[in-house]
Structures are given as C-alpha cells and as structure tokens.
C-alpha cells in the first residue's frame, strides 16, 4: 500500500507539473505542440484541467485540428466533462464540421445544460448552418434557431457574449428595434465591466471588441472604429482572434448595406510567407550563385523583408541556404515556422544540408526543427534524385500556406531568394 500511495503521489505531482507546462507554453504553437507531443496520457488523465487549458490554448492560436485531437483524448478519460465537450464542439465548428458540433451541443442542451457557453456555441452552429442552407425554408429555420438560442443564453446569463450575438442575429433577421435595444444593453454591460476590470485582465480585448460591435449594430461606425482600434492595438490579441473579429465586422457591415471592408484598417493582421530560394553553393560549383561568403548580407535582407511585410508565419523547406536563413530569421524575430521536407530527415541532410563551406549547417538545421511549429516529412522512402519529390514538396508548402491564409484571413507574402537567372 505505501508503494502504491507513493506512485500515486508521484503521478499527481507530474500532473501538476504538466498543468504548469501547458499554462506556461500555451501562447506559442511550437511550444504547445512540443508539450502535446511529449505528454503522458497517464499523467494528464489525472486532471481534466490540463486538457481544458491545452484545448483552449490551441483554439486561441487558431489551431482547431490540434484542439480537436486534444479534446478527443481528454474525453476518453473524462467523457462527461461538459467544458471539454463544449470545446470539442467549438473545434469542430471552426473546422467546418458544423453538424457534428451541433449534435454534441444539442445533446448537452437535452441533458439540461443551458449555460451561456453551451447556448452560445449551439447558436453559432445554427448560424453556420444558416449560411450554408440551400433552401429559403432551411435558411429561415436555422436563422430563427440561432437567434432563439442566443437570446436564451443572454436572458439566462446576462452575458455580453450571447448578448451581442443575439443583437447581431436580430439585426440580420430584420428585427431592428430588438437588435438595437439589446446592443445598447450590451454596450452598458461592457462599459461597466471595462471600468471594473483589472489592468492585466485578458478580458479587455473581448469587452472592447464587443463594445465596437454593439456600436456597429446601432449604426455608429465612428464609435465602432474607435473601439476596434483600441482593442486590436492595446491588448495584443492573437491573429486568430483579430481575424474572427474582423469577419464579424464585415458580416454586420454587409447586412447594414455598407462596404463590408469599410473598417478593415482597424484590424492589422500579419502576413503568412511562402518562401523559396537558392541553396548555398557547393565547393564544386563553377559559376558562383549563392556563395556562403555573403550569408550575413543575405540574412540582413531576409530579416528586413520579414519586418517590412510584417510576416509572422512562414512555410518553407529547410535546405542549407535561403530556406535555412529564412527560418532562422523568422524565429529570431518571434515568428512561427512550418517546415516541409520531401523525404527522410537523414537523407535530406545528406543531399540538401551538408556542405563543407558551411560546417555548422547540420546543427543549425536541427535547431530549427526543434523550434518549428510543425515539421512534415512527405515520404520516408523518397528518392533525392527524383525531381518530382521536390516539386511535390513545393506544392504541399504552397497548399498549406493557402489553407492557413484562408483559415486565419491573413494575406500571403511570397518571398523569393533568386539571382534572376534560369535554374540549373
């Protein structure tokens, strides 16, 4: 018995340490993914809060697929954990699996869970289904369901989250007086909450973004602009949060008969880079193209390009040369790098990294892989002499960047390191 108790206490201690790790590393995709990939399910299964915090962190970073994976494992150990079910539904909704999300939330509602989060996310799924409807009858049904559930959540909780969404959906449904009345109530709630909130409160962004949306519902675009700018410039929200706020602003502007991009300059979003460039010259190269001697000069130019275009997310391979310089520079400047390799790491190093003129290249390559948000190896058996493998790798890099761009609403900035001459 003492031995079992000691083992149990050790696992509990490890669980506390795991929770601390998630809290500490949840702000970066690279660190959160590293924590997730090295986690022990036996340890995490001792505390559902570890899963909840990890899922929430992934959602804030805009990584809904990762959030779904974490929530799914957590529910295997805590099948009745309401918050995990809500977060799983939210991750499904954000990945476009709207019906699956709706099913989870309807079941929670039937079980008597009528809290603001359940009702709010359920209403959101009906809003999505309304936008996807193929018939007028279907659209009307989901619009009224969405409005009804938002109203129910607001009336029972008095919360600004369901309140502002109820106002927005009432506006869309043509119930202008109701929309404006609720928007004014929500504006007062936000004003009171902002006055009481602690200076370091993480709620400031959402309170000010909600105040902006309330102003938008009543047609006060100047006040909306003021609050949107304050929210996005003073509280350092993540790109995923800003993107969702901008999408909602566009949605409302369109239904107000305004140019939907009229307030876009309130939402400064960084860019996603799609990088390609030359490798460092090998010793046997007859005509110089990218000699290692100019590395520092090129690195400086790459860093300037990253800063000039406000690039915070990058996709590239990791050959020794432009790829490596770009990845290192983006990481140095606090960005997020995603690496795609055409074949096994060991083989890739031999053919695309090793270079006697750059003796520390392998160490630098390994450091980037350690810090990367994601590393994808497309084929463990790929042939380094087959051009098709490299072409496929470039296509995957492009596709991943485009998907990220569409998901976060961020523009792509192609970055090319090229000597303006035809390739070998």
How would you characterize the overall build of this protein?
With 424 residues, the chain is α/β, with parallel strands linked by helices. Among the domains are: 158-269, no CATH class; 271-417, Rossmann fold (3-Layer(aba) Sandwich), CATH 3.40.50. It is 65% helix and 7% strand. The protein has 19 helices and five strands. The protein has helices spanning 2-25, 29-37, 41-44, 48-60, 64-77, 82-94, 98-110, 116-132, 136-157, 160-172, 176-196, 204-217, 221-234, 239-255, 295-308, 322-332, 345-352, 361-371, 387-408, and strands at residues 271-277, 311-316, 336-341, 374-377, 412-417. A five-stranded parallel β-sheet has the order 4-3-2-1-5, sandwiched between helices. Strand 1, helix 15 (295-308) and strand 2 (311-316) form a beta-alpha-beta unit. Helix 16 (322-332) packs across helix 18 (361-371). The radius of gyration is 25 Å and the shape is globular. The termini are far apart.
Give the termini separation. Answer: 71 Å
Number of extended strands: 5
Helix content: 55-70%
Structural class: alpha/beta
Q: What is the overall silhouette?
A: globular
* Mean pLDDT over the residues: 93
Approximately what portion of the residues adopt beta-strand conformation?
Answer: 5-15%
The CATH topology of the domain at 271-417 is: Rossmann fold
Number of continuous helical runs? 19
- The level-1 CATH class of the domain at 271-417: Alpha Beta
Computed Rg? 25 Å
Query: Any idea what the CATH architecture of the domain at 271-417 is?
Result: 3-Layer(aba) Sandwich
Largest beta sheet: strand ordering? 4-3-2-1-5
User: Assembly type of the shown chains?
Assistant: single chain
Secondary-structure element string = HHHHHHHHHHHHHHEHEHEHHEHE
Report the uncertain regions. none
């Amino acid at each position: 018995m003492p031995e079992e108790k000691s083992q149990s206490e050790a696992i509990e201690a490890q669980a506390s340490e795991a929770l601390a790790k998630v809290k500490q590393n949840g702000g970066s995709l690279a660190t959160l993914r590293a924590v997730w990939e090295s986690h022990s399910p036996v340890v995490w299964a001792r505390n559902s809060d570890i899963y909840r915090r990890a899922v929430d962190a992934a959602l804030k970073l805009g990584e809904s697929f990762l959030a779904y994976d974490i929530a799914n494992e957590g529910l295997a150990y805590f099948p009745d954990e309401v918050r995990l079910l809500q977060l799983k539904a939210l991750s499904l909704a954000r990945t476009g699996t709207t019906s699956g999300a709706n099913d989870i939330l309807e079941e929670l509602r039937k079980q008597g869970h009528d809290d603001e989060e359940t009702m709010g996310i359920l209403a959101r799924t009906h809003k999505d289904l309304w936008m996807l409807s193929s018939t007028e009858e279907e659209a009307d049904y989901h619009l009224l369901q969405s409005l009804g559930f938002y109203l129910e959540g607001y009336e029972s909780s008095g919360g600004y989250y369901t309140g502002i969404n109820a106002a927005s959906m009432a506006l869309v449904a043509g119930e202008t007086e109701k929309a404006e009345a609720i928007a004014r109530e929500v504006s007062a709630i936000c004003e009171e909450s902002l006055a009481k909130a602690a200076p370091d409160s993480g709620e400031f962004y959402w309170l000010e973004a909600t105040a902006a949306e309330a102003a938008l519902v009543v047609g006060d675009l100047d006040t909306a602009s003021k609050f949107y700018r304050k929210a996005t410039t003073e509280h350092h929200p993540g790109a995923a949060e800003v993107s969702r706020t901008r999408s909602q602003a566009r949605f409302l502007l369109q239904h107000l008969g305004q140019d939907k991009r009229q307030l876009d300059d309130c939402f400064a979003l960084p860019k996603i880079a799609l990088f390609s460039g030359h490798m460092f010259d090998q010793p046997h190269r007859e005509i110089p193209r990218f000699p290692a001697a100019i590395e520092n000069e090129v690195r400086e130019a790459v860093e300037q390009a990253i800063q000039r275009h406000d690039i915070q997310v990058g996709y590239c391979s990791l050959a020794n040369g432009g790829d490596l310089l770009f990845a290192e520079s983006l990481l140095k400047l606090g960005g997020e790098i995603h690496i795609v390799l055409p074949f096994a790491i060991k083989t890739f190093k031999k053919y695309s990294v090793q270079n006697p003129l750059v003796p520390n290249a392998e160490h630098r390559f390994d450091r980037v892989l350690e810090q990367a948000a994601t590393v994808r190896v497309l084929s463990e058996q790929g042939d380094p002499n087959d051009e098709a493998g490299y072409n496929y790798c470039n296509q995957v890099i492009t596709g991943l960047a485009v998907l990220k761009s569409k998901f976060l609403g961020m523009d792509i900035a192609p970055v090319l390191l090229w000597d303006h001459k035809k390739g070998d």
